Amino acid sequence: MSSNIALITRRVASAAAADMMHTSSRTTAPLLISSFGNLSINTTTTNSAAAASLIPNTNNQLNHFSSMATTTAKKKTKKQQIVELPPNLKFDPRAKSSPFYGAEKVEVSRRKKTNKQLKRKVEGQEAAASTTAASNDDVDTEEDDNEYTDIDDDDEEEEDDDEANEQRVLYDLSTKADVPRAIPLPQRLHVPIMDFKSGDQVGTFHLSNKTFGCNPIRVDILQRVVVWQRNKKRGKRNAGARTKTISEVSGSGRKVRNQKGGGVARAGHSRPAHWRGGAKAHGPKGNIQDYTTKLNKKVRRMGMRNALSQKLLEGNLIITNDMVSDTHKTRVLDEMLNRFDVSGRFGVTALMVDDAQAEEGSEDEAFVHGGVNVNLKVASGNLHKVKVQNQIACNVYDMLKYKKLFLSLDAVRALEARLEK
């Protein structure tokens, strides 16, 4: 009889335990939902004290996991930005051709300090978690212990690899300056018009796509045009120059002195090339040296269009409303050009192209000569970084030689009409 009563008591106890487990599982579900979505907690369950005790523990766990996720994301971002300089590469990181140019150098010791700070942070979280309920302290302690153990392992590995870390060179690529990008076509053709005297924008202008919109830039055409220009400038030399050979120099073929006994070098006649009054060795023979080469007119025009397009692509093309100077003083012109970062001690070079036209009998006729303003031409004579010329004399060599290109509206119209034939 007593055995039957004990068996019934155990079955009732097991059923009550199962009911409690089912009740606690139903209670935990809305608690998790409320902690994620900041919703009101359903308190219809009978075990309200257990529910209230689970709320702070659940929030602490979520905060702990979110902090771990943030730390991991930061670490991943750092690993993607920090790059190690391979020891087998022999180049200077300060060179512009280097992939590390502009990046800041990162010290290896900083990584150890970061791990120590993380270790202290975990210890602080462990102390805060000790004030929570006993049921959740075990879970938090195990997770913190695992992190603590991982950090200790990392510190031991870093202490073992101190010698290797001292030789490592790290760079942070996130500190590199952004590479300037060119404006794509056809938006690139819409350029501002600048006032030559004040440097302010006074309007906009749309350039011709055929003249200023070459894409890609034909570097081979530019090279051919530059070679043709340099050869043409070299031109023809030694036209008609002719020197006398050893048979044409006046002088006898008699032996000058005895072969031996004089204590000097032996000598025959008096007309050798190394003697005064003798012949000229390897001199010109009267042939005209012609260095000029031939280049088709279409290729030359193509070179001009590519050079203009390259200046626009670089952002070094400046369109002005006019190129008129009120005075011939160099100081005044230098002040106007300083607004465009041209000339001066630290300014860049510039090529100024104009197509000034003056009507016959007008007052402006005296201030225009050769398609440029006279005051501007005289004032730029003492500025070694500036060259002023008419659009007819504009060429590929000068456009590539000077950094910036100034074009007046008259010069733009003239160049477009001449190069689009």
Main attributes of the structure:
421 residues, alpha/beta, six-stranded mixed beta sheet, three-stranded antiparallel beta sheet, 12 helices, flat
Describe the structure.
- With 421 residues, this protein is of the alpha/beta class.
- The chain has 12 helices and 13 strands.
- It has helices spanning 2-37, 48-81, 109-129, 134-160, 162-167, 209-212, 219-234, 297-314, 330-338, 374-379, 396-401, 409-419, and strands at residues 82-84, 104-106, 170-172, 190-194, 201-206, 236-237, 289-290, 317-320, 350-354, 368-369, 372-373, 386-390, 404-408.
- Strands 5-4-8-13-9-12 form a 6-stranded mixed β-sheet.
- The longest helix is centred in the first third of the chain and has 36 residues, at 2-37.
- The radius of gyration is 44 Å and the shape is flat.
Q: Secondary structure elements and their pairing?
A:
Layout: H1 2-37, H2 48-81, E1 82-84, E2 104-106, H3 109-129, H4 134-160, H5 162-167, E3 170-172, E4 190-194, E5 201-206, H6 209-212, H7 219-234, E6 236-237, E7 289-290, H8 297-314, E8 317-320, H9 330-338, E9 350-354, E10 368-369, E11 372-373, H10 374-379, E12 386-390, H11 396-401, E13 404-408, H12 409-419
Parallel strand pairs: 4-8, 8-13, 9-12, 9-13
Antiparallel strand pairs: 1-3, 2-3, 4-5, 6-7, 10-11
Average residue-wise pLDDT: 77
Global shape: flat
Main sheet properties = 6 strands, mixed
Alpha carbon gap, first and last residue:
122 Å
The radius of gyration is 44 Å
Uncertain segments are 22-79
